[in-house]
Design a protein that fits this description.
Strand order of the largest sheet of chain B: 2-1-3-5-7
CATH superfamily of chain B: NADH:ubiquinone oxidoreductase-like, 20kDa subunit
Number of domains of chain B: 1
Number of helices of chain B: 6
Largest sheet of chain B: 5 strands, parallel
Bound molecules: iron/sulfur cluster, FE2/S2 (inorganic) cluster
Strand order of the largest sheet of chain A: 2-1-5-3-4
CATH topology of the largest domain in chain A: Alpha-Beta Plaits
Structural class of chain B: alpha/beta
Order of helices and strands of chain B: EHHEEEHEHHEEH
Largest sheet of chain A: 5 strands, mixed
Order of helices and strands of chain A: EEHEEEHHEEHEEHEH
Strand content of chain A: 15-25%
Number of domains of chain A: 2
Number of strands of chain A: 10
Oligomer: heterodimer
Radius of gyration of chain B: 18 Å
Strand content of chain B: 15-25%
Helix content of chain B: 25-40%
CATH class of the largest domain in chain A: Alpha Beta
CATH topology of chain B: Rossmann fold
Structural class of chain A: alpha+beta
Shape of chain B: elongated
CATH class of chain B: Alpha Beta
Shape of chain A: globular
Distance between the termini of chain A: 29 Å
Number of strands of chain B: 7
Helix content of chain A: 10-25%
Chain lengths: 237, 182
């Protein structure tokens, strides 16, 4: 069996290493599939469903689906993009996202996806849930208003023996991601910064680090999320 | 053909969106060629004197007066546009939405660190004053809104493009750098 497989995304012929996840395979072919809970190098979880594509006509999450020979993937159709947009809108109404007052604004992946999908207003009613801000940890602030429960921090931030420093608390609609009370002390300066960087939204903030990048120089001020990947495709042609 | 008529108002907003309208700089001269203004804080016309084509709404609804003005705009304008984050989702005033209204008032008038000279412990309740709503509502949750221009404030270029598109009937371009939520 060959090590490589051929497949198509929106009828564009692509090639990838057998067994690679679709998002990674697409990226290597210069095609952007939007992601939120997925993070390069962290075990995929498939929880946010933003990366939904149609594989041979069936809806699948591209971050958890390995490529296979002859797959036909649909990525940029009006139907799929509207599904994705509706997920973004749901995330905006079910938390409290006051972008004008948010430290992550301009560098936030959720906001950047909303820009990319030209979200002007969510189609769902705003919930305005009561959520707290926990600043009790000496190094970081955990703002529950903005957490999208993607679990990136739980999966990626671990102590020396591999235990997660972040953890779930409560259940159902009240669920929160918090610093584990027992392991919180293990959060070094480097890990705190890593946690802030890995959080797609402004839910983990290193104290005294907010607003340190001027407007205009932030990650998504000038170019849309995914445009770095797509520019590879253009230069390839 | 008579010029399209525009009305504007600021509900629970900070007037930043109106400032952003003025930020179109010299294009304001083109604007007054293009449209006629009716009720608006810009010209200080306080009451509608005729039906309007376009109503620009800044701010969400935090009290009974905001609701009244918004409904009046809906009645008088063919097209209503929510301009800015406060009109679209309540904006910063809506940061009180998770907190019970009594707690907000007690913090503002009785217990807050900046409260001075309210020895009798009065929370203003004169019948002349508009009633505060339980929370701040996005405009489209009160009346039908036709278009939305995000930003805090929306970039002047976005407001300009939208007005020109509405007046000329052309499709609006949404360049990446003008569509922002902050
Ligand atoms: S986390 Fe992102 S979407 Fe939420 S308020 Fe901050 S910038 Fe806006
Ligand atoms: S804190 Fe951030 S990284 Fe962790 S689950 Fe919430 S949104 Fe995801
Ligand atoms: S990125 Fe695939 S499900 Fe979240």
């Amino acid at each position: 069996m060959s090590q490589f497989v051929k497949f198509t995304i929106d009828t564009i012929e692509c090639m990838a290493t057998r067994g690679q996840y679709l998002v990674d395979a697409a990226r290597e072919n210069g095609i952007f599939i939007p992601t939120l809970c997925n993070y390069p190098g962290v075990k995929p979880k498939g929880s946010c469903r933003i990366c939904t594509v149609k594989v041979n006509g069936k809806l699948m999450t591209a971050c958890t689906t390995p490529v296979a020979e002859g797959m036909n993937v649909e990525n940029e159709s009006a139907e799929i993009n509207d599904l994705r947009k509706s997920i973004i809108e749901l995330l905006f109404v079910e938390g409290n996202h006051f972008c004008p007052a948010c430290e992550k604004s301009g560098s936030c992946e959720l906001q950047a996806l909303a820009y990319r999908f030209k979200m002007l207003v969510p189609r769902f009613p705003f919930q305005f849930p009561y959520r707290s801000v926990d600043a009790s940890h000496p190094k970081i602030i955990k703002d529950h208003n903005r957490c999208i429960l993607c679990k990136r921090c739980i999966r990626a931030i671990t102590d020396d023996s591999g235990r997660s420093i972040f953890a779930y608390r409560k259940r159902g609609i009240g669920v929160e991601v918090v610093v584990d009370p027992k392991l919180g002390k293990q959060l070094t300066d480097e890990l705190a910064q890593k946690a802030m960087d890995i959080c797609p939204v402004g839910s983990i903030l290193v104290k005294e680090k907010g607003f340190n990048v001027p407007i205009g120089a932030r990650r998504y001020d000038k170019s849309p999320i995914g445009s770095d990947i797509e520019s590879m495709q253009i230069s390839k042609i | 053909m008579s010029k399209p008529i525009v009305a504007t108002t600021s509900l629970a907003g900070c007037f930043g969106c109106h400032m952003s309208v003025l930020d179109i700089d010299e294009r304001i001269l083109e604007l007054i060629e293009l449209v006629e203004f009716n009720k608006s804080p810009i010209n200080d016309i306080k009451k509608f004197t005729k039906k309007c084509d376009i109503g620009l709404i800044e701010g969400g609804c935090c009290n009974s007066e905001n609701v009244h003005v918004l409904r009046d705009f809906r009645e008088h304008c063919k097209i209503l546009v929510s301009v800015g984050e406060c009109a679209i989702m309540g904006g910063l005033p809506a940061m009180r939405n998770g907190i019970p209204i009594r707690e907000c008032l007690e913090e503002a008038y009785l217990n807050g660190p900046t409260v001075v000279g309210n020895e009798e412990g009065i929370i203003p309740n004169d019948p002349e004053l508009p009633m505060l709503l339980d929370k701040v509502y996005p405009c489209h949750e009160i009346v039908k809104i036709d278009y939305f221009l995000p930003g805090c404030p929306p970039r002047a270029d976005l407001i300009w493009e939208a007005l020109v598109a509405l007046v000329t009937g052309d499709e609006m371009k949404l360049p990446y750098e003008v569509l922002k939520f902050d």
